Amino acid sequence: MEKYSRAVAEKLASDLGYDDEKREVMAYGAFALFQMLISVGLVLGFGIVFHVAVEALIISFAASILRKYSGGVHASSPNTCTLLGIVVCIGFAMAIKFVLAPVTGIGGFLAAGVPAFAWAFYTVYKLAPVDTPNKPIRSEAKRRRMRKGSFTLLGFYLVLTAVSLMLYMIVKWDNFFVYSMCLTFGVLWQVFTLTRGGHLVIVKLDLFLHKV
Structure pTM? Predict the structure, then answer.
């Protein structure tokens, strides 16, 4: 994937007359785009196989979009990151659709969901954005902008979850209830990766996937 990213960047930089610095930026952007497309495609593919395509994509997009602003621990390699994302999204989606949703009512979900979002807001307030040694956030203005974006997204997700629950209560379509749970789990997983416990879990899963 890195080879193709560089080839695309070389071609575009040559056509546009860009220098080496801009070429590297384009190569990084192309690599990130290819990785995103592959990750989404694999989540969709495995989701179709296990009959949780929409549910897995909701979890994936909820977590990954929030991650752009909140940061969080990274896997040791892009391939491991992709594999970890597939395992988490498909695993959560199957657990929600086939285990949790059928036995959880509105009352139970609200009893767990309201504290969950409260914890998410508190954790983002305390920790976000979480950078890494490879990509440190040196600008305080950027840090404030990312934190504000994290809060804005959390608020949007909260409203979206509430709307989905109301639609479920109005039309009695079970999928709305499942989608609400998937959105909440996607948020919780991403926020969890900001914490020390999340770092430890990611490191352990990373080591396990490397052995597998």
Answer: 0.88
